[in-house]
Design brief:
The protein is an alpha/beta fold. It folds into 2 domains: 4-174, Rossmann fold; 200-320, 3-Layer(aba) Sandwich (Rossmann fold). It has 8 helices and 14 strands. The chain has helices at residues 16-32, 46-55, 72-86, 97-110, 217-229, 237-241, 272-278, 307-320, and strands at 4-9, 36-41, 58-62, 90-93, 113-124, 127-134, 139-145, 150-154, 171-174, 205-209, 232-235, 262-266, 283-288, 301-304. Strands 7-6-5-8-4-1-2-3-9 form a 9-stranded mixed β-sheet, sandwiched between helices. It has a 5-stranded parallel β-sheet with strand order 11-10-12-13-14. Helix 1 runs parallel beside helix 2 (46-55), helix 3 (72-86) packs across helix 4 and helix 5 runs parallel beside helix 8. The longest helix has 17 residues, at 16-32. The protein is globular, with a radius of gyration of 21 Å. The relative contact order is 0.12. The mean pLDDT is 93. The structure holds flavin-adenine dinucleotide. Flavin-adenine dinucleotide (FAD) is lined by residues 210-212, 236-239, 250, 252-255, 267-269, 271, 273-274, 277, 287-290, 293, 306-308.
Length: 322
């Protein structure tokens, strides 16, 4: 019976994704009667290491000059080097781009099975069962992982964190990994996008705009509303593809997966690919002038109206009420 490994990228820090991965890992390890082993790769982040130690049985921290910046081959090699001797039953990763990229390769290298976009993972007899949405979130599938380890990337932000109460912190070990630069892939330039406020994936309130806004100008009005609400801005793919807003604002199947307390969709139709990115929101609400827009099927409540008649008065009212 192998243990459960949770991979945590040091660069992301002690964020909601790390907490969700560890929460799922802790529950899985407990139901297997196994140990939870956190693996942190990259320049040491104390908050992450201590947060992980509080809910894990051990934390392996691997720092190396080649782990300072993400590179698929070196990060994969480090994970294989650490995981192989452990012969784990499961390896869990978050649903950032890198976790998704690493999971399938890691499963292959460890001789296991891979699954992604999991909203649940459980033990069923001698197999691990992974629950995930299919058909754009319209149905749920349960996948039995045939080989061990099961390497699974999770919708980590939708997973409850583990409770550290009553648990002695796990032992933190620095591990040395032997890595060589991969000559096949070279980073030729790096563009860091200026970011304000919290990460979209961490946001508690999101105001999101779609193609129905008609151009980049109305997004300024939405931004004012978002500022009044203390919200982050997001958009549909149609609005991003049109170049009205940065691509980093896109939520959905091929964009970010968000899980806010409140998601306000303005002039967004609610295509299944968009819903896939917002399905973990606690409350979804929408403003759309089409009463038959699919988004209303996913809303706790919504408003059938031209957004232009609503945004200004809504912002004024919210500003007045503080
Ligand atoms: C493989 C694949 C992956 C994809 N990934 C994503 C993804 O990650 N994210 C994503 O968002 N999409 C994704 N898409 C695209 C998706 O299918 C839709 O095309 C897209 O979400 C539509 O964006 P939208 O709702 O802004 O535009 P539309 O579908 O054009 O909807 C505009 C809405 O605005 C409303 N409207 C118009 N004017 C007003 C007004 N004045 N006031 C109020 N409402 C108004 C309309 O009634 C309509 O409902 C993907 C598609 C594919 C094939």
């Amino acid at each position: 019976m192998g243990d459960v490994v949770c991979y945590l990228p040091a660069k992301a820090g002690w964020d909601r994704s790390a907490q969700g991965v560890l929460g799922a890992g802790r529950r899985l390890a407990d139901s297997l009667g196994a140990k939870l082993r956190a693996v942190v790769l990259g320049p040491t982040d104390e908050a992450l290491v201590q947060g992980a130690a509080a809910v894990s049985d051990s934390v392996a921290v691997a720092d190396h000059p080649l782990l300072a910046e993400y590179h698929p081959e070196t990060f994969l090699a480090a994970l294989v080097a650490i995981c192989k001797p452990l012969a784990p039953r499961a390896v869990l990763l978050g649903n950032d781009t890198y976790g998704q990229e690493l999971a399938a390769r890691l499963a292959h290298r460890l001789g296991g099975s891979a699954a992604g976009d999991a909203v649940g993972i459980a033990v069923a007899g001698d197999k691990l069962h992974v629950t995930r949405g299919v058909y754009g979130g319209k149905a749920t599938a349960v996948i039995a992982l045939v080989r061990s380890p099961g390497v699974v990337w999770l919708r980590a932000r939708a997973m409850d964190p583990a409770d550290p109460a009553g648990r002695a912190p796990g032992e933190v070990q620095k591990v040395t990994v032997d890595l060589a630069a991969d000559p096949r892939v070279k980073v030729v330039s790096r563009h860091v996008e200026a970011k304000e406020g919290v990460k979209l994936e961490e946001a508690r309130v999101i105001v999101s705009g779609g193609r129905g806004l008609g151009g980049p100008e109305p997004f300024k009005q939405l931004q004012e509303l978002a500022t009044t609400m203390g919200a982050q801005m997001a958009a549909s793919r149609a609005a991003c593809d049109a170049g009205w807003v940065p691509a980093s604002w896109q939520v959905g199947q091929t964009g970010k997966k968000v899980a806010p307390e409140l998601y306000l969709a303005i002039a967004i139709s609610g295509a299944s690919q968009h819903i896939m990115g917002i399905a973990d929101s606690k409350v979804i609400t929408a403003i759309n002038r089409d009463p038959d827009a699919p988004i209303f099927k996913h809303c706790s409540f919504g408003l059938v109206e031209d957004y232009q008649k609503v945004i200004g008065p809504l912002r004024e009212k919210l500003a007045k009420n503080g």
